[in-house]
User: Fold UPAR/Ly6 domain-containing protein from Apolygus lucorum.
Amino acid sequence: MVKATSDPQPAPKQQGGVTCYTCVNVSDNLMCNQYAIDSPCPAGEDFCHTLHIMDSTGASVIVNKKCADASECWPLGVGCVLVDTQTICVSCCDEMYCNVTVPTNQSNAIYTNRRTQHRTKVKSAHPSNSLPNQSTNSAASALCLLLVLLKSML
Assistant:
């Protein structure tokens, strides 16, 4: 008769990782979520980044979802901008599968960081939605958002 003399080793725990829906250049959110690859984000990529482009009627044109690091996900890097006839919205969050939905307006194009319990909404970069005394801040936010959008599309 053989006796087991060693204690079983517990499986290693995942240290604070996040898992996001991921897709590249799909036509809508349902398609993205149905065919998303289910794998944890790499170390250092602690956010779910979502880019949503809509036409003038609000219909989805492109959905991109990915894991991202803090250089791509920060409070001034989220929000919505109007470019020609399309609205481009970006959101970032850091909880498991938190990017199940896509941002469609300023109310849900947000940055959420559960580690500091910080939730931020950024004013629209579209001039008609900016307050007169915030025009400098809105212009800076719009520029930051456009730079983040361009970087995420490369």
Q: What stands out?
A: Residues 1-14, 122-144 have pLDDT under 50 and may be disordered. Residues 94 and 115 are 8 Å apart (CA to CA).
